[in-house]
Structures are given as structure tokens and as C-alpha cells.
Amino acid sequence: MIERKKEMGRDRVSRLVSWGHWFAFFNGFLAMIVGVRYIETVGAPESWLGWFYLVISTIGHFSFLAFIVYLVLLFPITLILPYSKILRGLAAVAATLSLCVLLYDTLIYDDYGLHLSPFVFDIAWADLNALLQGTSYIVTPIGILILELTAANYLWKRIEKIRKVNCGNKVVAVVGICFISSHLIHIWADAADITEITRLDDAYPLSYPATARSFMESHGIEKSTVAHAPESLQPALNYPIAPLQCKPDDQINILIVAIDGFRADLLDPVTMPFLSQFAQQNHQFKHHLSGGNMHNSGMFSLLYGLQGSYIAANDLNYRPPALHQELARQGYAMGRFAPDKDNIVPHALYQGLDNQVQSIDDGVAMADIKAIEAFRQWHKAQNQPWYSLVNLQSPDSYDTPVGFLGIETVKPQLPLKAAQKVLFNQYRQSLYFVDTQLQQLLTELPSNTFVLVTGVSGKVFTSNGDESRSNLSPSNVQVPLIIHWPNQQHSKSVDYATSHSGIVPTIMTQLLNCNNPAKDYSSGRSLLQPNSAAWSYVGDNLIFGIYQQDEITVIDRHGKYRIYNKAYSQRIRKKISAPELIEVMREGRRFYNH
Questions:
Q1: Is residue 450 a contact partner of residue 255, using CB atoms and an 8 Å limit?
Q2: Are strands 386-392 and 333-339 parallel, antiparallel or unpaired?
Q3: CA-CA distance, 473 to 455, in Å (whole number)?
Q4: I want to staple 337 with a disulfide (CB 3.0 to 4.6 A). Which of 151, 242, 371, 562 is the partner?
Q5: CA 45 – CA 356 distance, rounded (Å)
Q6: Model pLDDT for residues 115-150, shown as the tens digit of each residue
Q7: Residues 533, 544 contacting (CB under 8 angstroms)
Q8: CATH number among 3.40.50.850, 3.20.20.100, 3.40.720.10, 1.20.810.10, domain 253-588
């Protein structure tokens, strides 16, 4: 009798386990249906390869998630309380909650471009009313619960028939093959940079496609740097949002001088006598922020006028800045003169320009000298309106030419360590050298030339590259901005906050006569009026800072954040400001959502 009861108990548990697996598979199927919402956000593939990968990765991923939920939540209860009525009720409730969380995640991903995490949940909770509209958030969970209870009972009543069909192993095999195949295909796509596949990496929650990069690196295999973008692939980024409506009028020459590592607090009469006087005679912006603390992010914000979170958008590897597109349409000759720079991101940043880059074999300072000389010869040879970007990089590497006679060293006003004091004075020598070059450059321009002088980024006095990349303090992002308007000799000092994202709208509206609202092609507003936004974005897609009036919030890609005071000298213990961060996240999705 006892053995009989044990046998019946084992049979009941076996039936419940079998039922649980089929119930999990059913919910995996429901999760796949919900997952369609993610594809609507990122955009569907247009090649058979993309669709094949999407189908097998969807089947494998959501089936795996459903099985994990069953294994963690229901399987232990099956062994402790092997009663079908209790288990069916609990399973229906657990499945309903899981699907509701998945639906909520689709809303957050569509709005913010991020999946649920403790950090994102805090932000989304503050924005709950905007995310959940109408009564669907009440009706939907009830409808899902009814469906789950019906499915649970249906499967239980027919579990014996299903077991007799003996198709469970085949279903597991198909799901397993899809799961493994999707990861193998992704390893190949990641190595070959097949963007139609790799762009789906973050589409699904808890998705971590295999890359095998460590294996490739250990065996000396380098990842291909050639991006394969099928012509049939519809760009996911809608930039510009609307066609540019510009009417060429009196075309003038445009010169942008961008200096790497150019701190705002060292534009003074002793260190840079010429540029200091030039600034006093023209339009000077006293509180200007670069869009980044490195060359790529600073130049990206300067030329694209977009928030740095867009810097990794694949479409911008093939689409030049809207500013350059319009200049080309209006018939401008366009040139770039700079020391040679590796790893330019995005790849189309300087596309369409006559790129005259100089070797740095003899030092960055000599490359700057050659770049300026190349520009002088180039612009004198032009018989049409021209646009030129002159990028000087000496200050960022503390470089001066051999034999250059600089200025006297001074005691820093900043609290610096001994090694930093050496870098500080060498940096001043480099700025003084650049000032002499700017004097030659700016005093022989045609009168009908618009001149903009600014920094690509600021500068912190360190030889540690990692420290410089992670530092988003004002020293590393606050830069000078000086504008000379053609045929105007009046001076003006601007005390309201401005940023690089406002430079493109200013040029487009004031010089190229574009009637589009700035939001069609930029994240910024014209520099000629105070920005209504209460924040400025500084950084890229990996680490960024939100500059507000009295605090600076630094956030990394994992959602970890720190809040500092305005001077970046003290960390503030408080929770992140949700409204501003919600605006930042929405701006980071705006050019995808149109």
C-alpha cells in the first residue's frame, strides 16, 4: 500500500512536471507575440538573412526565458506542493505577472531605448502616467490572467493525450537548435560586422548574444573593421527628420577652428594675447560646453549638433552631418585641415570634405603648422564660397615645435599636484604656440568670412588616458567659443549657458537661410537666444553627464550614477532628478521614433 502511494505520488509529480513544461512553452509563444513590439521599435530586417536570424533568435530567446521562469518559480513548488489546482493557479498568476512586466518593458524600450533595470524602473515610475494611458493597464492584466487560467486548465485536462503523442523531445530539439544557431550566427556576424544582425543585439530584454571576441583575440584573429550595410537596409535613424528647406542668399565663407584640449579658463591675455583680444572685439560666449570630453564626442556634437547618445548610430557611418549636406547642396567648396587622427567615429563625420590631413611623425605641433599652411594655400585658390574646418591638436598633447620660445612659467591658481603643475605650464606653452598660429590664420582672411573658434574638448592635467576619458568635469568640457560675424566689428559677451549642439542651428539659420525648426536636424537651439532646456548633455553613448544649474550627474552605460556639485569638487548624496533624465532619454530616441 505504501509503495502504491509512493508510485502514485511520483506519477502525479511527473504529470505536473510535464504539464509545467508545456505551460512554459505556451507562455514562450505568448512572449514571442509580445516581442513583436520590440521589432516595431528597432525596425524589421529587409533581407532573408536578417529575417532568418530574427526568427530563430526570437524562438530560442523567449522559449529560454519562459523555461527559466518555470524553473525558478514553479518547479520547486511542484516538488513541495504537488497539487494541480494550487499549481495551476500559481502558474497563471506568475505567467500573468511575467507577461505584464514584459509588456511594460516594451513601453519603456520604445520610449527610452532601455530595458527594465532598478535604475530605469526608478525613472519610469516617475513617468508612469505618461507611459500608461487609458484603461488598458487594468483591462490587459485581467485579460491575460483569464487566458492563462484557461490555458493551464486546458493543458492539464489533456496532458495525458499530449504525453502519448511523444513530441516533447522534438519541440525541445527545435528550440535548442534555434537557441544555439542564433548565437553561432551572431558570433560570425559580430566578427564580420554584419550590421543587420548586430543592430538587434539590445532589442530583447536579458539578451546577451555570444561574440567570442576573447577567443578571437587570444588566437590573433582581428575583427573586421569593414562595415557591411546592405543597400536594402532602411536606416533606423531618421536624420534629418524633414527635408531641409534652405534658400541660398549672399553666400559667405565659413571657417571653423576647433582646438583639441582647449580649456576655457586659460583664454587670458598672458597665455593667449591675440585670441584674448580677438574675443573681446567679437561675440564671446562665457559659459559654453563642448558636447564631449574626447575628440570624437566633441567633434560629433560640433558638426552634427546631436546628443552624444547618437554617436554609435550605424546610419551615421554613411550619412554626413546635415550641415555638410546643405553646404554641398549650395555649392560650397569644403575642406578639412588637421593632423592625422585614427578611429574617427562616426565614419561619415568628415565625409564629403577635402580631407588634407598631416602626418604627426614630426610631432603634433608641426602637423598643426602644416595644416594651417595647407588651408592658406587652399582658400586662396578658391573662386567660390568655401567652408573649412581647421582642427589644431597641439594643446591636447602638450606639444610645441622644437626650439619654440614660449612664455614664463607661473604658479597655478588651481590646486594641483607636483606632476600636474609641470603639465599645467607645458600646456600653457602649447596654448601660446597655438595663439601665434591663430594670429597668422585669422589676420589674412577675406572680409566676408564667418569665423568660429572653439574647443573640441577641455583638458584635465593627467597622463592617464582612462582618467581623462571618464572625467566629465567642467575643466574637461567647458571650452571657449568666439564668433566673428562678417563685416561686423561690435563686441558682445554672452553670459547664459550654451553648448556645441547649438552651433549647427546657428549656422544653418543665420548663414544658410534654413527655415526648418532646429529640432528637425539638431538636439540644440540657436546660440543667439537662451536655451529653454534646463540641462545640457555631455559625453557619448557609454558615459555621459547631465549639466544642470547647480549640479552635474554622471551616468555610465550600466545605469550607475553619481551627482556632483557645480564645481565637480564634491559628490552630492541624493537621488537622480527624474524629470530631466526622462527628457534626456526621450531626446536620445527622438530621431529613431519619427
A1: yes
A2: parallel
A3: 15
A4: 371
A5: 38
A6: 887 777 777 776 666 666 665 677 888 999 999 999
A7: no
A8: 3.40.720.10
